[in-house]
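Input structure tokens:
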């Protein structure tokens, strides 16, 4: 008589392997949005740096003046449109405000507010108007987190 042992995997072993595979897939799918968010935040930070540099260049070419009239602001927006990743669409709010009024927080992730003669707060999430000649950009990485960048 032959010894007839069945070759193969038991149902428990197959279920165990499928459960581990499912866990690995779940971890990958949970990590993808975080990676995309990190990538977009990096692009936003690079765009804000480009905006601040363009405003600084504008001031150098115009005897230290901040873009004041609508023509200068639109020219600066158009000049920036081919240098930006996230904020490339000129319909997206890039506003240039002189040192009048108050500094308001930015909560929309598609908006950058550039202020003249302002300074970033120590918390890094806001700015206040001051006597310095610094240029400040306020932007949001997500709706609950306003960021400040100073040049």
């Amino acid at each position: 008589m032959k010894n007839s042992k069945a070759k193969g995997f038991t149902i428990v072993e197959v279920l165990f392997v499928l459960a581990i595979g499912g866990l690995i897939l779940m971890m990958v799918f949970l990590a993808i949005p975080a990676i995309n968010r990190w990538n977009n935040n990096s692009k936003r930070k690079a765009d804000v740096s480009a905006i601040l540099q363009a405003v600084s260049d504008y001031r150098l070419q115009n005897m230290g003046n901040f873009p004041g009239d609508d023509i200068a602001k639109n020219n600066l927006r158009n000049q920036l449109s081919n240098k930006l990743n996230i904020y490339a669409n000129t319909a997206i709010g890039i506003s240039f405000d002189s040192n009048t009024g108050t500094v308001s927080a930015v909560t929309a992730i598609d908006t950058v507010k550039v202020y003249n003669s302002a300074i970033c707060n120590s918390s890094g999430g806001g700015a206040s108007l001051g006597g310095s000649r610094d240029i400040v950009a306020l932007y949001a990485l997500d709706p609950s987190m306003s960021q400040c960048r100073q040049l």
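Strands lie at 93-97, 111-116, 118-120, 127-129, 135-142, 145-150. Residues 107 and 143 are 5 Å apart (CA to CA).
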